[in-house]
Amino acid sequence: MKAVRGKNGGISLGKPASEIKIGNVVSSLEPLALINCSACQITPACCFKSVLNQAVENFLEELDKHTLTDMVKDNRPLYQLLLASEVRG
């Protein structure tokens, strides 16, 4: 992705929007650590962290079933912006 500031600026994508998976975007931009076990007394015997890690993995797997194009295809103005950013890229 490339960002250009100014009146005619914008964002151009590094690859086609149809190849950009939402799970990849979310995992790149959002902290996904649900808990901090460093101060916990029962960490050695706890199974909760593995359950949460599996939940996050399932969450991202579900998001990866969708692309950036999928997210905007029913919104004509956003879809046009997306197409324009692909042309600039």
Automatic annotation (TrEMBL):
GO terms under cellular component: cytosol
Superkingdom, taxonomy of origin: Bacteria
Protein name: Rrf2 family transcriptional regulator, nitric oxide-sensitive transcriptional repressor
Keyword set, alphabetical order: 2Fe-2S, DNA-binding, Iron, Iron-sulfur, Metal-binding, Repressor, Transcription, Transcription regulation
PANTHER family referenced in this protein's UniProt entry, alphabetically: HTH-TYPE TRANSCRIPTIONAL REPRESSOR NSRR (PTHR33221:SF4), WINGED HELIX-TURN-HELIX TRANSCRIPTIONAL REGULATOR, RRF2 FAMILY (PTHR33221)
SUPFAM superfamilies assigned to the protein according to its UniProt record, in alphabetical order: Winged helix' DNA-binding domain
A Pfam short name: Rrf2
Species whose genome carries this gene: Xenorhabdus koppenhoeferi
One function term, GO molecular function aspect: DNA-binding transcription factor activity
